[in-house]
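Dock magnesium ion; give full complex structure.
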Amino acid sequence: MDGLWFFVEALVGGLLSGVMYTLVALGFVLIYKASGVFNFAQGAMVLFAALTFVGFVELGLPFWMALAAALGVMMLLAVGIERVVLRPLVGQPPIILFMATIGLSIFLEGFAQAVWGSQVRALDLGIPDMPMEIDRVLISRFDLTAAVIAAGLVIALSLFFSHTRMGRALRAVADDSQAAQVAGVPLNLIWAVVWGAAGLVALVAGLVWGARLGVQFSLTLIALKALPVLILGGFDSVAGAIVGGLIIGASEKLAEIYVGALIGGGIENWFPYALAIAFLLVRPGGLFGGKRVMRV
Amino acid sequence: MMSETQPLLAVNGVEVVYDRAALVLKSVSLAVPEGGVVALLGPNGAGKSTTMKAVANLLRADRGEVTRGSIVYDGRRIDRLGAADLAPRGLSLVMEGRHCFASLSVEENLRVGAFTRRDGRAAVADSLDLVYRCFPRLKLRRDSPAGLLSGGEQQMCAIGRALMAKPRMILLDEPSMGLAPQLVDEIFEILRRLNREEGVSFLLAEQNAAAALRYATHAYLLENGRVVLDGGAASLRADPVVQASYLGLDADGRQTFRDPAAARPRQRWLCCGRWRPE
Ligand SMILES: Nc1ncnc2c1ncn2[C@@H]1O[C@H](COP(=O)(O)OP(=O)(O)OP(=O)(O)O)[C@@H](O)[C@H]1O
Ligand SMILES: [Mg+2]
């Protein structure tokens, strides 16, 4: 019986941390969906957002003000990226845009640290990291809060995509950017909106991950955590990012506990990649990705 | 109102180069009067789509460029604008090959067509009504993803989307491509009604010269990137060269074996198959 509770606890813990992976993966999915570009700079944007927020807090701004200011900076960044990086590259093949995001990533890392400094900062969201007990299962209050925030963000984004004029235009651009332009949808605007949304996601991810790990350079590496999630869920599916994140989170925890014990642990770091590669062989498009609506 | 001498759309001596190397349009000039239906005819590769894309400012994405000449719409040059700037000015393009938003529902496709409208929900709802009256089939399928429609329905969806912008002029690139003759007539009839009742002007690129000349008032014949012939639809229909090369008639005006209509009975059968519900 204790074994069962232990299993449930590990599963819930895994699912909750999976939500945090989803959060990172979501930023990639947004940009990939709208422009077919793998945004290498997503990790750097997470660091940039977290550093900006902490920087404003250190300047003495109260929490909500700092949050609003950091959000404003991310929106400005989105508009700037559209103007300076994307607009001159219109019509170039995706690989060129991918290279541009590599450059962007290096710039963002350097710029953020030049402005705000490179020492490790603590970020306190005011959520106690105390486990709470629900029916004999211990759950991290922090993980639970993070999951609720992430779920809220996902729901808000889905509503935006499915029910607003701009969201509809975004999906139209994702389907056929030329036809969307002909219909009067300006690509510049759409890109700015998409990068703005990715900036918002990066900010939320930066706050949650920053609070857990401290705000430091290694935050950019959590982008790597998103990779198996994307392979599993598909690069262009929001639902895939959610399900992929949950699967990766839960399976890496369970594998660590049940398989890791047999072979001496340390499995958590590479298990998601192994899972993703195995999955790649079976379903290269991911669980939800690459599904084209097409009549044959 | 326009003065009679000034056409709604004028393409003046336009030259288009792809990849900075391939000269595809060589000084093409044409004009569409307000309220006119003008056909742009020509064989594969003549440059019809290139002309349409030049007007719609879509060449940049294909690494093409207007290197000479000007394009004037409604009295203003439009060849320096972006592709998205034309819809709000009342100029819409229905691209070759339909280009519906595959994962959006039919109604969402239509609503994207109204993206730049600023005249309120009620006016957009009116336009939606108009489109559904023109194409009742679209109304039946309003909630299915456009990618699942048949070819003819997708063409209707694309035309409907163009209409949602409340255009003064629509550029139509090969609306008849891949459609059964009956359906081609059906679509052209609707275009004629839109022209007469809503006053929409059309520039129609077509390989199907027979159908286009039945509905157009004026036509240009494009070959190898040059306008080689132009005139009233009736005079082009009577032209021996056009008859021989594009209408499948011999010198006496009789139908030859090349007449596309010879294949009609079979195609009509296919047409019934096309509309069978899935
Ligand atoms: N993106 C491109 N790059 C280079 N050449 C191109 C490009 N697009 C078209 N061309 C060339 O331009 C010429 C005209 O093409 P266009 O598509 O305008 O012909 P079309 O009259 O529309 O033919 P069709 O009836 O087959 O649609 C062709 O020779 C074609 O090979
Ligand atoms: Mg063509």
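Observed: The CA atoms of residues 11 and 71 of chain B lie 5 Å apart.
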